Prior knowledge:
Transcriptional repressor of xylose-utilizing enzymes. The structure is a single chain. The chain has a five-stranded mixed beta sheet with strand order 6-5-4-7-11. A five-stranded mixed beta sheet has the order 14-13-12-15-16, sandwiched between helices. Strands 1-3-2 form a three-stranded antiparallel beta sheet. The chain has helices at 5-27, 32-39, 43-56, 120-137, 176-179, 193-204, 269-282, 288-291, 300-308, 312-336, 352-365, 368-372, 385-398; strands at 30-31, 59-64, 74-78, 84-90, 94-101, 106-113, 145-152, 155-156, 163-166, 171-174, 188-192, 213-218, 222-228, 231-233, 340-345, 375-378. It folds into three domains: 5-78, Winged helix-like DNA-binding domain superfamily/Winged helix DNA-binding domain (Arc Repressor Mutant, subunit A, Orthogonal Bundle); 84-202 and 385-398, Nucleotidyltransferase, domain 5 (2-Layer Sandwich), CATH 3.30.420; 208-380, ATPase, nucleotide binding domain (Nucleotidyltransferase, domain 5), CATH 3.30.420.40. By secondary structure, it is α/β, with parallel strands linked by helices.
Amino acid sequence: MKLGKTGNNKFLKQFNETSLLELIRTNKQVSKADLAQLSGLSPTASGSIVSNLLEKGYIREAGIGISKGGRRPNLYELNPKSYYSIGVDIDVDFIRFILMDITGNVEYRDKISSGFDQSVPESIGAVVEKVRQIVRLNNISEDRLLGVGISVPGMVENKTHEIIFAPNLGWEQVNLEHMMSGVGDFPIYVDNEAMCSAICENWLGCCTEQKDFVCINMKSGIGSSIFAGGNLYRGCSGSAGEIGHIMVDHNGPKCACGNYGCLETLVSSKSMVEKARRLVRQGLITDFSETLDINSINSIDDIVGAIKSGNEAARVIFVEAAGYLGLALANLINTINPSRIVLGKELVKFSEDILEHLRNIALAKALRYPASRVEILLSELGEDTSALGAAIIPLKKLFGYRL
Length: 403
């Protein structure tokens, strides 16, 4: 459809408004004159847009700037607690929630338990109830909620945003955006959990200045996401980065995807817990039970606790997992050539010696030159990265970024 003059003018006005809003975000505090110079707009047009943004409440006056030869200018900045977004991270054990304001400040965080076999309607019901509670507790009017971003551990189709397959949740062909469209008068965005973590690291984490990096998460499975040339690389259908389903052992355990020996059957919180239980049950590491009873091994934290107590058998589980992951990282270094690989979620629980073992294997097995250009580091944002990234999605939309 060809846009008429009115359509073009409306689009241009929105584009200019978004551009100035992003300049205010990135420059923290800025004058109308500086905005005109940075944007290439006339001072009159820039001033008109600033007035409009003030009226809508997106920005506020932030004091007086330094004179550049005339009257000292008013400065403008984003208006904290004016507009909000909510991020939701659905996983097999918990659903995490983040309330973020327009400046990226976290105003509220919480998590609720979720059953491993929780159905789609049950999950949606829990999310909807909690979102409404967050809105109510924080006195947010719906017109000030920019949207709700939802992170899921599975493949999400690029165009329809349908969840194609989330094996650890047992979900397949789920259109979560459509199913939640009636929750309120605000948009719903669904994305892969590793993609959300990459969005988080790029927006407010350790990769704000990086254009080519990879994020890898470990929880119920292993997921990764790729930033290439400053943008998320999703592939033709949205499944780029599914390293958890790279086959690393033909004789390995059966994966939830149906194949055998996938990386996440050997390197995931679930697989390590199952291995600890199996080895104790078989009596192959009898010293493990001196630290932990088999019935009390329920999470990776139990294995971490055993390691801290000096249990060598527990440590070996981590060492073997780090070895498999190191090989996978070597392949990523060779094929993707990132400047950074960020390890997130429960990978941040790897001790420094385990992390060093992982680095040594990855760098030894990768090609020498790309290996010399990459950093492998832990995320500083812990287990909330996907929920944070999901909350950032509506903000990116507001500031004119491609999702």
